[in-house]
Structure prediction request, 101 residues.
Amino acid sequence: MEENAENAQLEILKSSGLLSEFVRNTKGNWNQAELEALMTRIREQSITIATDKIGAVLESERIAFAQESIVDAREATVNFDELGLKRKREVFGSELKKRIR
Prediction:
């Protein structure tokens, strides 16, 4: 397959949300049967990208999911009611800086 066509299909696959949905539904841990079902769904969409490239994108989606989970867990542990005013400002400021980046 021509590289430009493969890149275009790769972008279509990424923007479809199919891989991120798969990672969210499996919580980043899937078995062989689930992976084969995903590959069937991809083929049904007439996407013919090499399996190793799909795997690389799938792994990047897994990493993104894991990072989101860490951020969500960290945010859930901050109890502003128990923090002093100075500490509240520090936490709020650091979170604001992260989101601006």
